[in-house]
Amino acid sequence: MAQNTPVPSALRRWAADHLPGVVGEPDDVSWPRGSSRVWRVAAGTDVAFVKLSPSTQDYEREVHGYAYATRALAPHEAPRLLAADPDLQAIITSPQPGDVVRGLPLEAEEERRVYELAGRVLRRWHDHSEPASAQDLEDIRASMADQAEEAAACLESTAGHLDNEQRALVRCVPQELPQLAERLPAVYRHGDYATRNWMWHQEHGYGVIDFAMSAQGIAVEEFVWLCGAVWTVRPDLKAAFFSGYGRALSETEERVLRLLTTRLGVSYLHTGLTKQRTDLIERGHLCLTRMTHEYR
Length: 296
Known about the structure:
This protein is α+β, with helices and mostly antiparallel strands. The protein folds into 2 domains: 9-95, 2-Layer Sandwich (Phosphorylase Kinase, domain 1); 100-294, Aminoglycoside 3'-phosphotransferase, Chain: A, domain 2, CATH 3.90.1200. It is built from 9 helices and 10 strands. It has helices at 9-18, 56-72, 108-127, 134-158, 164-181, 224-231, 235-245, 251-275, 278-294, and strands spanning 22-28, 38-43, 46-52, 81-85, 90-93, 99-100, 186-189, 198-201, 205-208, 215-218. A 5-stranded antiparallel β-sheet has the order 1-2-3-5-4, sandwiched between helices. A hairpin with a 3-residue loop joins strand 8 (198-201) and strand 9 (205-208). Helix 3 runs parallel beside helix 7. The longest helix has 25 residues, at 134-158. The radius of gyration is 20 Å and the shape is globular.
């Protein structure tokens, strides 16, 4: 996970002003992708995380997301924002106890408990949403239209790699998604509610991190990765999640979730074929196979 990237000097000076008693070199704990720049900093007996946002939008969303988390979630359920600088597009946050859930070896019963708590926390997050503005609603429409168009474009390059059932399902995305999504209410989304952003601690319990993609949207957008990667093979985890969430998805929401996950799968496949990335090709095929088989 670590990339051993040194902290830029301006960021180091700013962090030192807010974290007196910094000890040693910060540890690079970024995810292995170019846009992720996060360091773990020891300051005396305390620990904090320093993050550089890749864009103004990410920075603004994350600062707003941390303020929202303070209102919507309990103190042990999310880290807190300690400092922010719009010029550097940098933030300092408190640590969140526990380990990242993705890849964490859990017994089935404990894993179901984590998913139940994840659903419960997300429902509380959604329930604190303020009404979407006219601009928010227009942005959601544009996003759904963009995803519909992306599915149609990806189909042109991937059709020969799909079976008849998969091609038919991908065609449904541009045909149905914009109209169906219009029926669903907007909520303030976490935006990246995947297990890489879930934290689990035996004593402190469940927590969630990373608010850089928080924005208004439709609730089922939160579930796309979970649907494609987890729930089709672990229906018990889906049941546990929605037990915590407090309600099942409506028929329209289930259909929109399937269409959005199909869009993700064909996008993986297109990118994999274009860039000759075997991992993405396999991921795309797996996702599309699951979407066609699961909903028969």
